[in-house]
Fold these 4 entries.
Entry 1:
Amino acid sequence: QTGLIVLDAHPDCCRKANWPVHSDWLRWLVENECVFPKSVLVIGLRQIEPQEKNFLDRYGVTYYLMNSIRGVDNPVMNITSLKFHLDELRKLEAIYLSIDIDVVSGVYAPGTGCPSPGGFTDVELINLVKQLKVALPNLRAVDIVEINPLKWWQRLILPYDATVDLGVKLIKEIIS
């Protein structure tokens, strides 16, 4: 059995097509029984549509809105319900971690398709990934999605895009 942890500003549970697309891939995985809802954990949500909330609640997917973990120094250890869920995930054979870079506030990661305010800082995200690595020795695979470096015309306004650097830092942390 495999568990899934998703760090994202959006739950990606819309129903936009008859095949998985970026806005409904999690819904597709759950509905097609590729992953059990109780083995899914979504952290950092800020923009959630009513149909997505209904889906998560109906299937019993555990999720944390960003405002519920904001200001917690060590969410893995200091949020009792999160710690309990991680203890349950630790019992599984493997955990897959998916990091959508828009879980970070657009100030720290502007080079993404859907930058939005109110997310993690770059340091908070790196620390969360460190905490998850320690808490989950069964973490087997990780992806980082939606890094989209600024286009040339945007560089005239903002010559430096910290998003790629954050992605590199995350990769270094994951493989170290």
Note: Residues 71 and 124 are 10 Å apart (CA to CA).
Entry 2:
Amino acid sequence: AAIAFSMMLWINFVLSRVVFGTRAGARVLLGALLGIVGILVLFAPQIETVSFSDSVFFGSMLALLGALMASCGNMVSQGAQQRALPVMQANAWGMLYGAILTAIIAFLQGHPFTFDATFTYIASLGYLAVFGSVVAFGAYLTLLGRIGAHRAGYATVMFPVVALILSILFEGLALSAAIVLGTALVLTGNLLVLRER
């Protein structure tokens, strides 16, 4: 899933070129390539054991479709910011539309609406709503408006690196040569992408 979603970076390149005429520079392309290679190195042990059964293939295609949809959302956000629409209000409306659509789909599929009134559930829901949605998307979409979707999309390559670092710190994941090399490649790619003028 991490590899499939990191492809959003390349989808952003293509859509930015088609929609806005943005041409990614050589540094950005090289940085993106290093980032993807770094992700492949990080997940090499898991990749070797993957069997492309029907379910794995279907899941991979869904992950790629999710990356495509997220990239389309990046283009919409970049276009909205070029028209001087405020990030937080546009984000709030987008989340409202998404919540309504999700509720309609859940209703049509017969899923019950439930709420667990425990502290753990409410605290995790609050964290996801405030920090995982409002703050995170607000920061990312602001970055997208400032440097463009073709460069801001590199954040998707950084997600697995941050997850691995947290796993090393809190879950006892053993540090390996693949983790060090993959992280170094991703960070080098990040520097190249962000230093592009």
Note: The mean pLDDT is 86.
Entry 3:
Amino acid sequence: MWLILAFVSAALLGLYDTSKKASLKDNAVLPVLLLNTIFSTFLTLPFLVDYTMGTSWFAGTIFDTAPYDLALLEDAGTAGNAHVLVVIKAFLVLSSWILGYFGLKHLPLTLVGPINATRPVLVLVGATLIFGEKLNLHQWIGVLLTILSVFLMSRSSKKESIDFKSNKWIWCLAGATLMGAISGLYDKFIMRSLNP
């Protein structure tokens, strides 16, 4: 069952990247990102309203949540701190999205996809360095294979006139991947600090 779900997830992610690439064709990056954010907000608005107003629209479903109680946060004296943590998270995600969209617009999907796939490896390495987590042998082999594949891509992409060292769109994509990995690591930190 999990294997089927993994393949469905991979197919949907591929369609998502293809759709983003198509939306960026002949369009500026920032308006496309703004519209993406607006439409995503409208899709999640019912869940946000239900959560903040306690309307119980989704009672008994996987989207059911307890009503938001700001008083608990304020009583703990952490409301301002919580907002600062969320603003930092928003900055990390937005910077990753902006850099990623610029890279996606100007680079082939065959290059963007594998580079984006290195993000979990960066999170694994960061988790070992920052949080002291341990990787098993299979995870280390996966990390080494990912590093090897990025090296081989950099060699083969020269045939497509893309130089990893001097192409600014590669650097945008690398920045997006790094900011996304930092965002993932920050998630663990912020979840320790706030009630999820």
Note: DSSP finds eight helices and no strands in the chain.
Entry 4:
Amino acid sequence: LPMVNLLIEKAFKILKNNGRLFYIGSGTSGRLGILDASECLPTFGIENKIIGLIAGGDAAIRKSQEHAEDSITNAWKDLLSYNIDQNDMVIGISASGSTPYVVGGLINCKKNGITTGCITCNEDTKIAQNSDFPIEVIVGPEYISGSSRMKAGTAQKMILNMISSAVMIKLGRVLDNKMIDMKLSNNKLYERAIRIVGSILDIDKNIAKDLICKYKNIRLAIENYKSNDK
């Protein structure tokens, strides 16, 4: 947890200064990074700031591209396609800590002065050696030997939740424990937004509904109600 906290503090500073946070990984680790990154827009209303990259590209999200992880140069090529620079931060995700795709990406980031971190489930790994903020979560052998999508994958997902959630809270994207910047993209979320506004402002549901219908945004609804109330 102390290492997780150090990484969170650095990631917060990076995003606060208009930088970006990249996750790079292969297989299960890559998919977990993409999952965490993709949830940041609907949950926190933040776009193109937390980006997940997987060895093998988008095709690898749905169908395994096992060979793709063996390239030590492709992660850097993928990062360059986003015009990565020293204002950004890259977190490598690898249960073994030795995935060539991730190792190569972190090595090139270090060479170019880009802040690095990692999440791994082994000690003294190559990705940790090339990370400014290494996180080593030792979960022990898997029930099915070598299948790191289980305990290791669960641990990685929990750490990613900690990182993105804590950073978004520190950026002010959450009020108390409520998602005031979430995207209202379906009926369920509209209903949730009405409940959130009603709870925060302590107002009748119908008034909260009118505010959401008018502003289509929880934060704007709250700010305008408070402003008019004064």
Note: The longest strand covers residues 115-120.
